[in-house]
Amino acid sequence: xxxxxxxxxxxxxxxxxxxxxxxxxxxxxxxxxxxxxxxxxxxxxxxxxxxxxxxxxxxxxxxxxxxxxxxxxxxxxxxxxxxxxxxxxxxxxxxxxxxxxxxxxxxxxxxxxxxxxxxxxxxxxxxxxxxxxxxxxxxxxxxxxxxxxxxxxxxxxxxxxxxxxxxxxxxxxxxxxxxxxxxxxxxxxxxxxxxxxxxxxxxxxxxxxxxxxxxxxxxxxxxxxxxxxxxxxxxxxxxxxxxxxxxxxxxxxxxxxxxxxxxxxxxxxxxxxxxxxxxxxxxxxxxxxxxxxxxxxxxxxxxxxxxxxxxxxxxxxxxxxxxxxxxxxxxxxxxxxxxxxxxxxxxxxxxxxxxxxxxxxxxxxxxxxxxxxxxxxxxxxxxxxxxxxxxxxxxxxxxxxxxxxxxxxxxxxxxxxxxxxxxxxxxxxxxxxxxxxxxxxxxxxxxxxxxxxxxxxxxxxxxxxxxxxxxxxxxxxxxxxxxxxxxxxxxxxxxxxxxxxxxxxxxxxxxxxxxxxxxxxxxxxxxxxxxxxxxxxxxxxxxxxxxxxxxxxxxxxxxxxxxxxxxxxxxxxxxxxxxxxxxxx
Length: 585
Hints:
By secondary structure, the protein is mostly helical. Among the domains are: 293-460, no CATH class; 471-584, no CATH class. It contains 25 helices and five strands. It has helices at 2-19, 52-71, 79-90, 109-118, 121-126, 131-150, 155-166, 169-174, 181-203, 207-225, 230-248, 251-283, 288-291, 296-303, 316-331, 337-353, 358-362, 374-384, 409-428, 433-460, 463-487, 504-509, 522-530, 532-535, 546-553, and strands spanning 495-497, 516-517, 538-542, 558-564, 572-577. It has a five-stranded mixed β-sheet with strand order 2-1-3-5-4. Strand 4 (558-564) and strand 5 (572-577) form a beta hairpin. The protein starts with a helix and ends in an 8-residue tail after the last strand.
């Protein structure tokens, strides 16, 4: 009897090993042997609920980072973070609130996601209004890296890739700010997952799953298009991948997917078309974000010395060097980024070589290469789109746009782990004692290296945080001085001030944006430029800005009451109007 029971138990276990989990849908590709319980050597998609522990762990890790960033005053070091918060605030708090305030060069989705919290004065002033968006995005991207890694490598190496990604100090810092990188990375990773799983389903002739993943990608593409401009290229590539896979699949599946692909196409083009319409309707130029006064090209022209350009301008070689080096430093401590990049490129090559293997093709592994899109995008952007990147390791040894290298972090983490897994396989093919010891300890050593990389980067101050510290020193001093002056002005009177560069002064003072006459409300702004004394009770002019020019041209009725000067910033003059009265509001 005992022997009979053991035989039946062995039979049940072998059946489990053979079938894995099954779908209730007949013909589903989930009936394939994608999960072998307890087998760490299986390369498989994740099972339901498997990503939740990673998401929860990332939320806890994000809260720890938020605690540190909040108590050390790091959350508002980036001027762009302050401006993103102000952009979100002005949608509800301005002279003309609403859709007209969505725009600018920056895309609107991050600002929309801050709206539930931005009207709380303390959350605006501290930057906590952006924390829910950034922390959830960070956790979602960590869960996405895990889900993506499980389709490419064994469990223990997927854990290495996810750990390396989650413990990146630059990413942890950005996850506490109002910057857009964490939101974009979450959407980017999950759109790659949706593409891979959707195409795998098409190859397995599973129209139900393919339709679901295509619609998920159709929702994620507009989201990334409305978050960052690199998302426009990612969206186009995702659409092209689905179009190619449909063209190559069975005619029956193609007919079943025809309507859904049309819907998917409409969703993919909806984001760019909306932004073209928005710029045309509210700014009078459908390409205002590319050639308007606040575009990258115009900013570069205003800030560069006459006849000079940054290194990398119209030079693909230099731009490739700057971006690749920045991505390395963002991802790894000291000079280990060279090894990380080499390992990731080797992992990409190995993945490409095994694309013809039946199991690999069934998982649509090759489409994970979407993660490398930021590399050619930023090489082109630096060379031909007026997007300079400065890092201290390369001339002119400055800090500017160093955070752009973070877009390549998922690719570096996943493909470097893939290369490390390949090294383990090489050890396994050898029979020596040293090789057996290497197989046993190589993955734990890799996990220790991930933690050590995090600690060393924090000790040396991560590049993205260092950039924020260096570039905020003089700006924060001026904005605090301006805020002190604004606090002495009554809340119910209009103040004219250009907020393009120093909206943080209003944020710190606790004034409403509605009380300010600035570029954000074009009608009131243009009228005030021609007669500042009649339109504003107080006028704050910084040397060289439009308000200073207006005061020079129309000084009548303005009495200078204060001059504010700080190191490294233009002086500001505060004027009180002798002509303004409440009826002129």
